[in-house]
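Lab notebook, bench 4. Still working through the backlog of constructs that have no structural model yet. Next entry is a single chain of 164 residues. Request: give me the structure tokens for it.
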Amino acid sequence: MKEPAFCPHCGLTLQMRDVSGTQRLACPESPDNYTFWDNPIPVVAAVIELDGKVILARNRGWPEKVFGLVTGFLERGETPEQGVLREVREELGLDGSVRDFLGLFPFFRMNQLIIAYDVAASGAVALGEEIVEVKAVPPDKVRPWDFGTGPAVREWLDRRGIGK
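Model written out:
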């Protein structure tokens, strides 16, 4: 997320200042003491299993050989479980059910908190707007990566006794 340059309340230029012991962008004069907190964004992620295989997706704009989990921003008024099933439906056209909560995984580079689930899916894949390609991988051939949703994949593999 791009840092704001101006106070949304009064329009003054935000300045770095000490807020509870941490340097933060804040309005120097705003009556409500506006502070840009830059809190992490909640993102849901699904390790999707369909017909015994893990479905990995390639987002539009990603390099040709880069695949990952289906992810999406949690929307107002929905639980993380509802959000992850919505993303599975929107991005792949699949019906899903949450089997297990895999954990919370910080993705500091993107300022996100990934809320990951093990999702069983059914139906036929129908790509949504954001996904250009999927591949179905046997669980024992899935290899986790070291950033983003990779730690959730590692957790899923470990729980299955497949982890290395």
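Notes after review: The mean pLDDT is 93. Residues 80-92 form the longest helix (13 residues). Flag for follow-up if needed.
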